[in-house]
Amino acid sequence: MYSLASRGITLASTATAAARRMFTASASHGYQTRLGQYYQNTLRDDITILEYVPPKVRAEQQAVEEARMQATRENITGTPPNPNKKHKKVRLPKAKVPEVTAHNAPFVKSVTVHIRCREALQNKHHLLSALMALQVVTGARGEVIKSKSDASTWKLRKGMPIAAKVELTGDRMLEFLDKLVEVVLPRMKEYHGLRMGSGDGSGSFTLGFDPSVIGLFPEMEVVYDQFPLITGFHVNINTTAVRNPSGRLLLSGFGLPFIHARKPASETFQL
């Protein structure tokens, strides 16, 4: 009798734990997204092979870069800065491109989804629609952004709420990227991809979308009519790449399209 009772208690506790795991919002231990598995199993090795540079060629590239920097320092002309006056901050030199291995291959560091709401200048309650849209699309609670200065042209005062953003990392970030690339972008009629010259020079890229695109997310289709105000949004993808080519290689591996500048037909086809 005692063994049956103890066994029943054990089964009940096991069922309770299983129910908690079923309805919990956090991911279980060892969970990995589809995009994360694809990067670990395939894309990381491909990027390592594609970005491999032989040691001799790398030494020649570094020598050319150092010679160019030295020539730039020697050919500086103009009036030297006055030490008694405040000057703008000097832009720091870019970091050197490290040798890519399987341990430091480029990866996505964070994704920021940003919505700027102009209607919030007249009524700050319009910002609630942007906050709810961000929470529906990303699954994370948004953060209100307030203005840092005054702008009399736009009737903007310091401290007024004007925008909302969400910064995603980890599995939530990869799930959002997977959804954006596999579901949203193919459903857009007139989207060809990012330009090859896009990027900030340090491996980060920004995509801008109009208000009609946010309704293409599967979560927004059900509750789209309940939003009184729909606005456009921006997606900033911050990667660990040091240069834009490495970032483009990573994002193209994830399925984000890039377009090349096409030459005129007169230059391409010659009779």
Report on the structure:
The protein is an alpha+beta fold and 271 residues long. Helices cover 41% and strands 14% of the residues. The termini are far apart.
End-to-end separation in angstroms reads 96 Å
**Helix content estimate:** 40-55%
Task: Determine the strand fraction and express it as a percent band.
Answer: 5-15%
Calculate the mean pLDDT score and round it: 77
Q: Output the radius of gyration.
A: 25 Å
Instruction: Return the structural class.
Output: alpha+beta
Shape: globular
Main sheet specs: 5 strands, antiparallel
Pick out the low-confidence regions: 1-29
Write the layout of secondary structure elements.
Elements: H1 2-23, H2 34-50, H3 55-74, E1 108-116, H4 127-138, E2 143-146, E3 161-168, H5 170-187, E4 194-195, E5 204-209, H6 218-223, E6 233-239, H7 244-254, E7 258-259, H8 265-268
Parallel strand pairs: 4-7
Antiparallel strand pairs: 1-3, 1-6, 2-3, 5-6
Key structural traits:
alpha+beta; disordered N terminus; 7 strands; five-stranded antiparallel β-sheet; 271 residues
Summed up:
With 271 residues, the chain is α+β, with helices and mostly antiparallel strands.
